[in-house]
Amino acid sequence: HQIKQKYMKHLNPKYRGLVVATAALVMTIGSWLGAAPGPLGLACDLINHFAPLWLVLGAVMVIAASVWRGAWSPARTAVLVCGGLWAGSQLWLMAPDIAGRLSPRPAEPVAVRVMTYNLWNQNRDADATVRAILTSSADVVAFPEPRWGHADSVLERIKGAYPYQMSCLENRWCNLAIVSRRPFLSSGYHQGDWAGADPDLLNLAWGVTTDRQGRPFTIAVTHHVWPSPDGLQEAQARQLAAALDRCGFQGLVLAGDFNATPWSYILKRQDRRLRPLRRLSNLTPSWPNHMALANGRFAFPFLPIDHLYAAPEWRRLDLRRVDGGGSDHYALVADLSRASTVLRDQGAP
Question: What is the per-residue pLDDT across 215-227, written as a single tens digit (0 to 9) for each?
Answer without folding.
Answer: 999 999 999 999 9
